[in-house]
Every structure is written in C-alpha cells, then in structure tokens.
Amino acid sequence: MAPYLSTLPGGIDPRYESHERYMRNLNHVLASSTKTQYEERRLETGIAKPSIFSGIPENRRYPITSLFPGDIMHAVLNLAELLVGLWRGKLHCDKNDDKATWDWAVLVGDVWEEHGKAVERCKAYLPGSFDRAPRNPAEKIFSGYKAAEFLTWIFGLAPALLYGILPDRYWTHFCKLARGFSILHQYRITSPELTEAHVLLTAYTLEFELLYYQRRPERLHFVRQSIHNLNHGCPETVRTGPQPGYAQTGMERTIGNVELELRLHSNPFGNLAEISLRCCQINALHAMLPDLDITPGPKEVPRGAFDVGLGFCLLHPKSRKPIAPPAAEEAAIRRYFETYEQGVVEDCWLEQPTIRKWARLRIPTHQVARSLWKEETMEAKIQALRQSRNIKFEDDNSLPAFAEVQYYFKYEDRAFAMVCQYSAPDQELYNISHRAIWSCSPAQDGEFRVVDVQRIAAVVGMVPHPFNAKHPEVHGRVFVVEKPGLDLLMYTGQLPEEEDEEEDEGADGADNDTQ
C-alpha cells in the first residue's frame, strides 16, 4: 500500500500545506476593515469565521483541515442504499439510458421477495450478541431499517445469499467490498490486513466505474461520495486508528440517551441544553479527579459460576452429577489429554473419565457461548431462539477454525469444550469471493474433539446455504457470519441480551466436577 502522506515538492507535508493555506485565508478574512470587504473576502475564500475547534491548543488536535475523519456507520447506510438501489433497478434512469441494459438489476419481482425471505430465515442462526437481526428487507426496508441490520445483511449475509443470483462479474466485484469493509470494522488490524483491504477497496472503486457507471455521463449519479470515500478508508485508519473506535454510533447512542432524560416538554431545547451541560460538567470532573469515576467494572462472576481466568467464565446450568461420557466423546477426551496435556491428569481418571456438563461460557468479548446440550431443549420452548453454540477458535496451527459446542466441562481449574468441528472452507469459493465467504460442511456424527476454552475467540453464526440452482454443490453446507467490530465489546462493556436459561438439573451446591 502506498504511503498516505507523500511529501509535496519542497518537502511540505500536504496536511500542513492545506492547513497553512486555510490559516492564511482565515487571517485574510479577519483582517477585513469594512463589511463590504469582509463579504468579498468571505466569498473569495469560503471562510466566514474561525472554527470553534481553533480554541483547542494546536498540540492537542490535528490541523483544522485534517480534523474530521470518516464515519464508517453512515458509510454502511450510504453504500447499502446505493447497492440495493442498483440491484433492484430503482435508481433514476436518464432519458439517454435504458434499464434494459442494466444487467445487474436482478433483485426484482419474485427474486427480490425470495431474497427477503432468505434474509429473514437467517435470524435463527445469528447469535443474540449480533444486535438486531436483519428483518425481511422486501417488507421492512422502509420501516426504520437499522444500521446494524444493513451491516449484517449487506456485508455478512449478502455475499453468500447472492451467490448465483448476481451475475458473476458483479458478484465477485461486490465480494471485494464485503471483504475489505469487514477488515475496516475490526478494532485491531494488522499491517498485512490493512494492505489487503486497501487493495480490494481501491480495486472495487475503479471497477465500479467500469461495471456500473461505464464512463457514461448519463450514469454519473451512480458514482456517489460513498464510493469515492472507499479510497480513503485505509489511509484514514493509518492516520486516526480503526474507524469503529470513533464511528458516529457512539454519538447516536448519546443523543438517544440524552433524549430519554428529557423532562420539561414545555421547553425541550432548554431542557436538553441543561442536561448536556450537566453531562459535560460531570465528564470534566471525572477527567480532573479520576477517583470520582464510579463506572462499574467488568461484570462479576455470577454465583455458582466457575471463573476460568483471562475473562472466561463457565455459567450455569450444569448437570447434577458427574457422568461417564459416551464412547466417542470419551475417546476424544483421552486423545486430547494424551496428546496435549501429558501428565496433567491422573491416570485413573483418564482410564474412565467422568465429567459434569456445563451449558454456557462467557468469553472476553462479553459474548455468551451456549451449547447443543441445553440449546436444543431451549429451541423447543423458545420459538424465536437465536443459536449461540457455534464458535471461532484457534486450531493447532494458530489458524481460525469453527465448531459447534456440544457442552463444556472442567478438570481441576481448567475448562474445556467438547465440539464437533466444521470442515475447512471450500477453497475455490473462498478464493473467488476474495475470502469473503467461508463455506464449510458440518462435522460427521461422532467426530468429536476437545478444545481448551481459552482458545475460543468469538461466537459466530453458521447459516445454511439457501437452495442454489446455479451452484447445487453448496447444498448441505453452511457459511460463517462474524459480527463486525466484535472486539469493541471488550472495551465498551456492552453485554448481549440472552434468552432465559433453565435451572441446573437439581442444583446441589458446590462440589467437584471430576472424580
């Protein structure tokens, strides 16, 4: 990736060159001696008065002309509106253009209705920690569709759901955007990942003009600011850090919170101003006297839970008494401890292991990973249950892998997950989608393995591929959907809401899980 900040002839950094030009123009306006002269200079420079941010010391802020970074939250909304409008053929068609030539407009009629139903069916496979699951866009797209819904639908589900529906050249082009945008939503981004994202997004921008706009003046309105801004996403990340950390989402949430505190409806704006002033005063006191901050820390370990350490915690329910696992699971336990944990367990226990099953695990992202053991019982009772039993973890080579958790168990002060691992991704689909789609097959019955819970990175969605007449080979497979910006939860402390859990199977107080 080329450096973002090149040096102009003469050794001047372009950030500061534009800032110096701004300051010269501002001083030129402020030096006006008459109102007529001020009006002339204001029109000449486009500057009316100093910015309020000029009051911040220069060593505490970026230059004025470089002060405002991009907003990735509204980028999601703007890109989704543009792409859906194109694919549905709903954008304005100039009199010199012909919609019959819009071969990308495939989400029309029954195809659009069926796509909406496919999106809605995905809800059951998306964990509750994914915020609001996308509703049927064919019915609800104009009914307050949320940014989180667009993000999950367009950048999580659409690459797989549109496979075989969008013409191949448009689909592979869209996958570049989906992959690059998912990288920008990470809170931690490595240099190779950022380079990959920059290459994909700049290629997407260029190819957008070739595929959709086609350099035709009557289609100039296709190339919106949201397309051009993709070229700046990675350089902005280099300059100001990962974009989820300063996205408009936080400001929107703050506005909502302040609005909820409104009490004086006869003078709402005065009331809001007073509330905002009080909030600023409290923040200033916390900044000057940090000991005043009484913000609650990490959520405490619930009663009866087991703290594994490093942010991992086994949660109820758990089985009443230790049991001997079935033969296939027993073999997986023995294979794991003999291979990775030699000498850790007692030989007598390894010969005939007995365990107590645990149903849930809280991980450092504040997600709660459930298990098939209890979740299949809950599915019969809770119609709208969203699966949270699929996990992402590091395999033996420190590479990402995915599995369905059967249950959790512990030995002494260690905790483990009994899982059925999904297959490696379909390499051809993985490559042609520019790594946007991880499509894999479920594990065969009886293929169990044991995973140390501290290797679990996230709870993910494993969504079945819909019927695809053009690509029948995907039938029976599932594709991975990860929550963008998930690792931000580690810093915000936002905890996902969960469905009610059952009580233990005859909870009988604290006792040993292994014998």
UniProtKB/TrEMBL annotation:
Superkingdom as given in the UniProt entry: Eukaryota
Ranges of Acidic residues composition bias in the record: 496-515
Region named Disordered: 494-515
This protein's name: Uncharacterized protein
Organism: Phanerochaete sordida
